[in-house]
Amino acid sequence: MASSSVLTWANALTLNRLLLCLPLYLLIRNELWSWAAVCLFFAVVSDLLDGKVARTQGTSSTLGGFFDHATDAILVTTGCLALAQSEVIGFALVWLIPTAFFQYSLDSRILTGRALRSSALGRVNGIGYFVLVCTAVGSYLLDWSWLQMLLPTFAWVLVASTLVSIADRLQATIRKPNQG
Q1: Euclidean distance between CA atoms 75 and 79, whole angstroms
Q2: Contact of 44 with 129, CB cutoff 8 Å
């Protein structure tokens, strides 16, 4: 059963994750790695729980799904911005993540009330963005320089896979009207 109410426990969990974006940014920028790790822990837990809570309580909705995905995009973009400004990774993901999310939203026709439709590569990228930010924070927290050296390469792999995902989605969108 889908709910039309915005005031749900699942949306409250998502809102808490959204409220962690600015603190996460500031904690990474100020190299407060322990606190950044705590912030990420609560963000990841809320991300794992919000969908389960919505389904269990019968309150899942298109709006709730969009809110969840938008919050994820904002959180990982904010984390990548802090990492880029700290010269840990380049700035490409800071622009590509919101671009991919915007395309994903438009392609899914979210404005017409449809649920978001993700691709397999889009899901992998979404997880990869979280893994990048969490790995960066963890590597600095644990002072693992060997892992820190891999972060720019991991970020560029995500840049490449995000560009492939954007191109694939665009190609599918262009093909769709012609298949009629």
Answers
A1: 6
A2: no
Mean pLDDT by 10 residues, the chain (180 residues): 72 97 98 98 96 91 91 98 98 98 82 67 95 98 98 98 93 67
Residues 19 and 31 sit within 8 Å (Cβ to Cβ): no
**What domains does the chain contain, in order, with CATH numbers?**
9-179 (1.20.120.1760)
Q: Would you give the distance in Å from CA 18 to the centre of its chain? A: 11
Tens digits of per-residue pLDDT, 164-174?
A: 999 998 887 78
Looking at residue 178, what is its pLDDT?
Answer: 55
pLDDT, position 177: 60
| CA gap 103, 101 in Å, rounded | 5
Q: What does the alpha-carbon distance between residue 101 and residue 107 come to, in Å, rounded to a whole number?
A: 10
Per-residue b/e over 140-152, b at no fewer than 16 CB within 10 Å? beeeeeeebeebe
> What is the dihedral sign for C-alpha 55, 58, 62, 66?
negative
Taking the C-alpha atoms of residue 176 and residue 54, their distance in angstroms, rounded to an integer, is 32
| pLDDT above 90: percentage of residues in the chain | 74
Stated length of the chain? 180
**For residues 2 and 60, is the Cβ–Cβ distance under 8 A?**
yes
